[in-house]
């Protein structure tokens, strides 16, 4: 993973006292963090940038806890995940996040193209408001079933059923239009 | 403040970080706390009067070796738990193995004794007090370990707390050995382990409260 190699090199140079390398690392991390928190909190959420800054501060202040003999990305991911869960805890919501999924933070950027987004909006627009919100949460924002259920104050089963029905309805609509 | 400004401000304060700083911090804290624990035992409980003879016996060193080995596991675990993303490492499996080894020795010892003496060997004179005293003596060590951990970045707070408990319990039990006159492996593997386990449990309980940052 070239991200790992590149970031680790910057981290090591920063640890040696190179301010420019450290700044480059923080800059790069801010991009990843913004994507990660947006995916977890919903793209429009006001807290995303606060969390990004919080985590950058943690990366800076606690950089002494990085062991150069280990990979960099799991260290960064553990910090980001800790900050995310702490944010949820303070907001009073019980959530989980996978422990061993650094790929979640360092995933490639979003794949939506303009044309796809247009068709998608049309399809989603046909759904009732609540069902549409759930589909957006689960399929677009990438929340887990548990997270979407907590967000909408519904049971996980209800969310699964609703999303399933919505997907079927949209698929039917697409089939009808193609005929 | 915009994120770019924050990054610039942070990068302006980038001294080189010395390797091994975490380990040194923990070691220093431990040194001070162990001295305090020793002082506590000597003043409050007093050194065992037969220390001079006890130190010649293998049982004395087996006891000390057992508790120190547990403390070493706690030390290793605590350092790892202070680093985000680090796994628990070999110490997690080593601790139960060490307990198991002494348990086997204790069983062998018990079976080699006449049946009528076995209960005495297991219970000794001080089984009621022992785990409790170990936990009390471990307290300054636990406090120092928590202090050291707070200078790191623990992300799994319960496990970190439990690791601190294991370290504190191991050290506390070792220092307690300066006073305690029980020598049978059966006693140690039961009541000393209980004391250490109590420290682990308290650590796990208090971890989230004490270590959050």
Description:
- The complex is a heterodimer of chains A (179) and B (213).
- By secondary structure, chain A is an all-alpha fold.
- Helices cover 73% and strands 0% of the residues of chain A.
- Residues 109-116 of chain A have low confidence and may be disordered.
- With 213 residues, chain B is mainly α.
- Chain B is 74% helix and 0% strand.
- Chain B has 9 helices and no strands.
- Chain B has helices at residues 3-11, 21-45, 51-54, 58-81, 91-112, 118-123, 130-150, 157-176, 185-211.
- The longest helix of chain B is centred in the last third of the chain and has 27 residues, at 185-211.
Number of helical runs of chain B? 9
Low-confidence stretches of chain A: 109-116
Radius of gyration of chain B, whole Å: 20 Å
Please state roughly what percent of the residues of chain B sit in beta strands, choosing from under 5%, 5-15%, 15-25%, 25-35%, 35-45% or over 45%. under 5%
Taking Cα atoms only, what radius of gyration of chain A do you get, to the nearest Å? 19 Å
Helix and strand pattern of chain B: HHHHHHHHH
Looking at the structure, what is the overall shape of chain A? elongated
Gross geometry of chain B: elongated
How large is the share of residues in beta strands of chain A?
A: under 5%
Approximate helicity band of chain B: over 70%
Oligomer: heterodimer
Q: How far apart are the first and last residues' alpha carbons of chain B, in Å?
A: 21 Å
């Amino acid at each position: 993973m070239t991200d790992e190699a590149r970031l680790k090199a910057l981290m090591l140079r920063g640890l040696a006292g190179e301010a420019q390398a450290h700044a480059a690392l923080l800059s790069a991390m801010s991009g990843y963090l913004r994507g990660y928190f947006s995916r977890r909190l919903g793209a429009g959420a006001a807290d995303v940038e606060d969390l990004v800054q919080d985590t950058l501060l943690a990366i800076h202040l606690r950089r002494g806890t990085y062991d150069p003999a280990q990979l960099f990305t799991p260290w960064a991911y553990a910090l980001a995940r800790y900050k995310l869960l702490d944010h949820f805890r303070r907001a009073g919501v019980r959530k989980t996040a996978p422990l061993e999924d650094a790929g979640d933070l360092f995933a490639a950027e979003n794949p939506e193209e303009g044309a796809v987004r247009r068709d998608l909006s049309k399809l989603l627009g046909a759904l009732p408001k609540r069902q549409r919100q759930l589909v957006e949460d689960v399929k677009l924002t990438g929340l887990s079933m548990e997270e979407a259920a907590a967000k909408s104050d519904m049971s996980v089963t209800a969310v699964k059923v609703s999303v399933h029905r919505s997907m079927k309805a949209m698929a039917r609509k697409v089939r009808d239009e193609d005929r | 403040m915009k994120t770019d400004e924050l990054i610039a401000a942070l990068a302006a304060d980038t001294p080189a970080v010395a390797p091994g700083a975490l380990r040194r911090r923990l070691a220093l804290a431990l040194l001070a706390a162990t001295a305090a624990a020793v002082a506590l035992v000597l003043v409050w409980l007093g050194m065992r009067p037969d220390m001079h003879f006890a130190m010649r016996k293998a049982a004395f060193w087996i006891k000390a070796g057992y508790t120190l080995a547990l403390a070493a596991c706690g030390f290793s675990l605590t350092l790892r738990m202070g680093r985000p993303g680090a796994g628990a490492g070999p110490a997690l499996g080593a601790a139960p193995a060490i307990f198991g080894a002494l348990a086997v020795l204790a069983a062998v010892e018990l079976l080699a004794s006449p049946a009528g003496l076995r209960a005495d060997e297991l219970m000794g004179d001080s089984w009621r007090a022992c785990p409790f005293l170990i936990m009390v003596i471990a307290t300054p060590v636990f406090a120092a370990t928590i202090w050291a951990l707070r200078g790191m970045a623990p992300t799994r707070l319960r496990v970190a707390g439990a690791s601190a408990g294991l370290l504190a319990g191991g050290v506390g039990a070792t220092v307690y050995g300066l006073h305690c006159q029980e020598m049978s492996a059966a006693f140690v593997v039961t009541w000393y382990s209980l004391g250490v386990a109590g420290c682990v449990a308290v650590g796990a309980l208090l971890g989230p409260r004490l270590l959050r940052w």
